[in-house]
Specification:
The protein contains 13 helices and 17 strands. The chain is α/β, with parallel strands linked by helices and 407 residues long. The strands form 4 sheets. Strands 4-12-11-10-7-5-6 form a 7-stranded mixed beta sheet, with helices on both faces. Bound molecules: pyridoxal-5'-phosphate. Pyridoxal-5'-phosphate is lined by residues 109-111, 114, 145-147, 197, 201-202, 230, 232-233, 258-259.
Length: 407
């Protein structure tokens, strides 16, 4: 399997001719993956620390996950939510085990998880004010990213995301991350919820401090607001805890999940604590595809491997050592590297300049990864990556920095 395999494709020409132009032109075509590795169509092998944007938690084609999908595909793939399927119930049970007493709703993506959270907050607002349309506002953080559908996009206070698509869904206002007072100042009788990424991903790998999360919890308790944590990117073990907010000990009212949940089979989910779990009533929300037997089988396989291989504990330990290793780069290249942000296997290399010019050098060295915000290289190894893989990535990054230094 480690032989370079050249799989000639005409994907670039086909994209040019037929694919909508909503994504920046991709630099390469991937044709195969195995564990932490991915191959392009010229046979070049990369350490894949993009992980499909924090999706491939188990890396590419993990045998347990592949077998679970194969088995389920031969049994029952889809049956809609008109009927029960055993995997949905079992996955909900596992999620409740992680998050605490409550209930689960399954959908197909991160933005859909956030739509469900926003809709729940509207129902909470009605319960609070006794009337529809009176209490509906949701406070978010500047620089947040909550998705591309109308609710998620309206909750994303970034000009580059919202431009061209106004009028937006009303009712969103943005405070400053890690500034409780800026959120307190925005609360009025019409406020129903606070929605926040525990670790901002797209925005630049910026962590909420524990004090900030506790401050928001207090505000939510004082004003009867839902604390809705968007763990779409930082959840599912990525930061070295099952949910990133669990490092702080804070309690959430609603949790949104997606990316890593099923290792690349599309899935999103929300968990809602007991107190608010009955806000959705029959007919109030739904999806055709969400929670299919196949999607749930993929997610259950992720749970199985996370536990069997004790991955989350390893992510915490390896991630801390790796962060220290990367921080050394700020000492070696002080003119280029400002520092390292994030936790576990969700780290950001903060630069003094733009991150995009580094990507070709990193690819040349054999490392795939995305950027974040205006000045950050985002590092999202699959959770199966060993400390050897992490050190290899550090070496590739060091090589790119050295090239830049002498360029
Ligand atoms: C990726 C992401 C989303 C959107 O998820 P999609 O599956 O792309 O719709 C929402 N919130 C956060 C924090 C994300 O990282």
């Amino acid at each position: 399997m480690n032989q370079p395999s050249i799989v000639r494709t005409n994907a670039a020409e086909l994209y040019d001719a037929y694919v909508m132009k909503n994504y920046a032109k991709a630099p390469l075509t991937l044709v195969r993956g195995e564990g932490v590795w991915a191959w392009d169509d010229t046979g070049k092998k990369y350490l894949d620390f993009a992980s499909g944007i924090a999706v491939n938690a188990l890396g590419h084609c993990h045998p347990v996950w592949v077998e679970a999908i194969r088995r389920q595909a031969g049994e029952l793939i889809h049956c809609s939510n008109l009927y029960r399927n055993p995997n949905y119930g079992e996955l909900a049970r596992r999620l409740v085990q992680q998050a605490g007493p409550g209930r689960v709703y399954l959908c197909n993506s991160g933005t859909e998880a956030n739509e469900a959270m926003i809709k729940l907050s509207r129902l909470h607002g009605i319960r609070k004010s006794g009337e529809e349309g009176k209490c509906y506002k949701v406070l978010v953080a500047k620089n947040a990213f909550h998705g591309r559908t109308y609710g998620g996009m309206s909750a994303t206070p970034q000009e580059k995301i919202q431009k061209g698509f106004r009028p937006l869904v009303p009712g969103f206002a943005a405070g400053e991350i890690n500034n409780v007072q800026s959120f307190a100042d925005l609360i009025d009788d019409q406020t129903a919820a606070i929605m926040i990424e525990t670790v901002q991903g797209e925005g630049g790998v910026t962590m909420c401090t524990d004090e900030f999360l506790w401050g928001l919890r207090r505000l939510c308790d004082q004003h009867n607001l839902l604390l809705m944590l968007d763990e779409v990117q930082c959840g599912f073990g990525r930061t070295g805890a099952f949910y990133a907010f669990q490092h702080s000990g804070v309690r959430a009212d609603v949790i949104g999940m997606a990316k890593g949940i099923a290792n690349g089979y599309p899935m999103g989910a929300i968990w809602c604590g007991e107190k608010h779990a009955e806000l959705f009533t029959p007919g109030s929300h739904g999806t055709t595809f969400g929670g299919s037997p196949l999607a749930c089988a993929a997610a259950l396989a992720v749970f199985e491997v996370l536990e069997r291989e004790d991955l989350i504990r390893k992510v915490a330990a390896n991630g801390a050592a790796w962060k220290a290793q990367l921080e050394q780069l700020a000492v070696e290249f002080p003119r280029q590297v400002a520092g390292v942000t994030g936790r576990g296997y969700m780290l950001g290399l903060r630069l003094h300049g733009e991150p995009a010019p580094y990507l070709p050098l990193l690819r040349e060295g054999g490392l795939l990864c995305p950027v974040a915000g205006l000045n950050t290289i985002r590092l999202l190894p699959p959770l199966i990556a060993t400390s050897e893989h992490l050190t290899l990535a550090t070496d590739i990054i060091r090589g790119a920095l050295r090239k830049k230094e002498t360029a």
